[in-house]
């Protein structure tokens, strides 16, 4: 993998320095966090209807009659979907047919019986179902739902990330019927619970890697939340954010490339939250992150959004390109511009959901601080679980800024 080669000689250092940056006024930090979180969840929900649409805008128009302009319910049928090829028992693809375990004392499948309760029929080899077919317009995917679990865990631990506490919360959430409404769970989650249930490993030993589907951008979703939490703590450094974000990654998956990427991403999040003035150049910070990873300098792409798969070697550079492009267009000013940028990613297709969510956190924190405009915006008002999200976001902000 190109990404592995690029990272072979790169360190896990962040793009910041070891010293704690000055902390802006508490109200400024709180509003940056608030906007980052709303845009984080919005990016996920806006892109889910076109997730893994490798036909790009043309396929989106064919499926929905037009490009996406708002939160949209994912279609149920999706020609070309590989949900029907995914493994109900664990990692990656199935080996053909509807696989089941025959052990009398163990669940016949992970998908449908241990996690994603009752959703196994959507994965049937004879069907072509959208990966998020069961979601409503504005409803968040599983990964963003797990981010909410993580937020609640941090609140319960008085504003701090605790790997053991989150691990238990993660397991409880995933194994509880009706805890979320998504159709799909990525390989890392299927492997975790296969190791837990079938191989009877301890939870600490369940994170795994199939050498293909785990070193992916969805692995940055949970560390983004931890990075936001650490950035709000006055004495914390970028290295603190990187270390705790890496610990978060290790709860659900085993991935050296993702650990390296996470450290750099955490530094970016930290610097955006802690910057003294909005006028500080986002592009400089993004370019420093890319350089620290041995990645090419991010490119301004004013007429296109690069469509990629989920793998870090392509998806992370594309995300950094998005950030410098939006900055060059001076289009991160207010919530309406954040909305337009997130829609642009949604209408790119490919692996857009987790890219949009991660980028959303940066765009939200980096945009003008306008509490009333954000609270009344379609970006906030259109989210399916808006009221529950509002409480969880506010509880999170209070907890992490009181540390």
TrEMBL record:
Domain of life (superkingdom): Eukaryota
SUPFAM superfamilies per record: ADP-ribosylglycohydrolase
Cross-referenced InterPro entries: ADP-ribosylglycohydrolase, Ribosyl_crysJ1, Ribosyl_crysJ1_sf
Region (Disordered): 82-105
Protein name: ADP-ribosylglycohydrolase
């Amino acid at each position: 993998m190109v990404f592995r080669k690029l990272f072979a000689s790169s360190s896990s250092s962040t793009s910041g320095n070891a010293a704690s940056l000055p902390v802006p006024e508490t109200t400024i930090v709180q509003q940056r966090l608030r906007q980052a979180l709303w845009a984080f969840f919005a990016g996920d929900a806006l892109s889910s209807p076109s997730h893994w649409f490798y036909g790009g805008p043309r396929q989106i128009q064919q499926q929905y009659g037009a490009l996406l302009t708002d939160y949209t319910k994912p279609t149920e049928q999706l020609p070309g979907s590989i949900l029907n090829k995914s493994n109900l028992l664990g990692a990656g693809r199935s080996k053909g047919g509807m696989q089941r375990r025959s052990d009398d004392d163990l669940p016949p499948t992970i998908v449908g019986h241990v996690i994603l309760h009752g959703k196994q029929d959507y994965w049937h080899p004879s069907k072509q179902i959208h990966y998020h077919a069961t979601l409503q317009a504005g409803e968040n995917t599983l990964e963003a739902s797990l981010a909410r679990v993580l937020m609640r865990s941090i609140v319960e631990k008085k504003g701090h990330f605790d790997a053991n506490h989150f691990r238990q919360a993660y397991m409880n959430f995933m194994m509880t019927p009706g805890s979320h409404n998504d159709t799909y769970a990525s390989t890392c989650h299927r492997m975790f619970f296969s190791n837990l249930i079938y191989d009877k490993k301890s939870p600490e030993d369940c994170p795994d890697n199939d050498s293909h589907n785990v070193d992916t951008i969805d692995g940055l979703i949970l560390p983004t939340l931890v990075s936001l939490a650490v950035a709000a703590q006055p004495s914390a450094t970028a290295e603190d954010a990187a270390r705790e974000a890496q610990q978060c990654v290790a709860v659900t998956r085993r991935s050296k490339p993702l650990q390296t990427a996470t450290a750099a991403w955490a530094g970016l999040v930290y610097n955006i939250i802690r910057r003294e003035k909005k006028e500080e150049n986002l592009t400089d910070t993004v370019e420093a992150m890319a350089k620290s990873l041995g990645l090419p300098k991010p490119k301004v792409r004013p007429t296109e959004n690069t469509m990629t798969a989920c793998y870090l070697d392509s998806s992370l550079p594309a995300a950094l390109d998005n950030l410098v492009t939006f900055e060059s267009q001076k289009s991160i000013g207010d919530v309406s511009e954040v909305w337009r940028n997130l829609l642009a990613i949604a209408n790119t297709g490919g692996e857009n959901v987790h890219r949009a969510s991660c980028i959303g956190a940066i765009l939200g924190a980096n945009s003008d601080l306008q509490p009333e405009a954000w609270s009344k915006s379609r970006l906030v008002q259109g989210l399916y679980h808006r009221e529950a999200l509002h409480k969880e976001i506010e509880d999170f902000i209070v907890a992490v800024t009181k540390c």
